[in-house]
Amino acid sequence: MSTSKTAVAELPLWLLADATGAVQACSPDSERLLGREPRGLALAELLGEQLAGRLLSAPEDSFEWTRPASAEGTEPATWRLERHRLEGGGLLVRGGVSGAREEVPAAWERRLSRKLVQPRGNLAEQQRAFMLSIFDADPNLIFVKDRRGRFIFVNQATADLFSAPPDEVVLKHNAAIHADENELKVFDAVDQQVLRTQSEVRVEESFTRADGKELWFDTRKRPLRAPDGEDFVLAISVDITERRRMAQLLHETNQRLELAVSAGHLGLWDWNVVTGSVYFSPTWKAHLGYEDHELENSFGTWLRLLHPEDLEQAQALAVRHVNDASSGDRYMHEFRMRAKDGSWRWIAGYGLVVRDGQGKGVRVTGYHVDITARKAREAEQELLRENLRRTNEDLQRLAQMKDEFLANMSHELRTPLNAVLGQAEAMSEGIFGPVTEEQLSALNIVEESGRHLLSLINDILDITKSTVGRLELDLGPVPVEEVCQESLRLVREQARRKGVSVSYSSDGQAQSVWADRRRLRQVLLNLLTNAKKFTSETGRIGLEVTARPGGEVAFSVWDTGLGIAEEDRQRIFEPFVQLDAGLGRRQEGSGLGLALVRRMVELHNGQLELESELGRGSRFTVVLKASVSS
Fold first, then answer.
1. What tens digit of pLDDT does each residue of 238-264 get?
2. In angstroms, rounded to a whole number, what is the distance separating the alpha carbons of residues 155 and 169?
3. What is the pLDDT of residue 366?
4. Coil, strand or helix: which one is 23?
């Protein structure tokens, strides 16, 4: 079985149908060739029941079909169809107009081909070559198409539009060399209207080039009848892309001017760059306190009224936008202008540049807005911001003085308090003579209260020193196991008295960390004390040590206590903040423990992590760098 390649290529058609004859897919030109969209229709609806039955069941694979005249006025035609059976029972139907090969030679003779022209031949050939050169020299598109929509002649400008030599465009349909389906429908519809009405049609149509740029043409199409009576379409198209762009730009300009005028008290201006003429509206002049007749409409008027400090920049901005298209067509600038009463008015100038085909500004139009009141408000706001900045600096200075005062006072308080504790301890041991049981009990209360007060003073001293940058660390390798056991010993007995169990675990991977031993012990003790404080009787607390990738060691203190709400997780690290606040609070403390923990971890360049769930407990994790030896 063989198929005429020319016939199928001339009017390409293929339909992919399932075993029932329903069309599942089709070629791009099928809708144009059959007069409707084939997908979803049965072969019987498209080709008739008789032919559809033959395609589905007849033994032969080649058929002829007479296509009826379409609504677009095309004549009936005999088609040659070929069937290919597919696995699963489907069909591939391909075809084209039968005898298309016989039409090509006639069309070939009618075409005006440059290859057939002999400039040095007889007089007729010379005249033909001369006419071709005239058509090719015309920048407008000139072409002729036959009833089937094929180009019979194109001049050089038309061929350039398709990025192909003229002889490669001839005998091609638009659809074979152009991809935009919407534009193709317009081209074909106008061609058919010309042939049907035998009258001229003028239309503005778009053409999208292969590079994506959209062009616009003013096209005139008229009927052209050959001596043998065959009808053609002669078209001449003028490129109006730039004209449309300018028209659109002017339309936008008018819209903006109308908006500016209707919006309020705006001073309009217009500058014709080519002639140098300038127009200022009466409102423009009124902004500066002048009557219309008191100011000349000239570029020099604007320059003369500009503030000397703003003159150079304002003039350079306007000139740059006119001469350099890359600067943009719209611009805005704020400057000062002298009013009639001698005062300086702040003006916001808005401009829109209209350009010619080469991108050079030929006209600038826009409006002025008096923004003096806005500038005054901005100056007031700037003054308020400056006052606020100074106030904040004063507050910061006072806060620093407070911190330094607390640091000094804490030190002064600690010295006599240590003396009181020393004397109470000496009296308890009978150094100054025997004491009774009642006296010993009283001395124990004094010592316990004094040590509690000393702990508070030490916390205040540490937090203030860290705030003012006076807290120094004695860094070095700290054995992990030793510092953990020291911290646990200090809290284990208190937890036992409360009925809280204490556990400890370590993966054994981290031997030492780079830290200040006393401060690390203070961090762990504060976290363990907090865990014990907020865990009820029969609850559990613990300390876990694990090595992390990247040379880090994680100390995790966990409990089964109250837990911390999401909204409170940042507040608990602020100094003097206690979630159980008020006169009736159940837990004692200064609210400095977690604040100190965070400050100490930050000084170690470590990380502090928190996981918590209300009613199920919390987990605080301190992450520090392992020492080199570890």
1. 999 998 888 888 878 867 766 666 566
2. 10
3. 87
4. strand
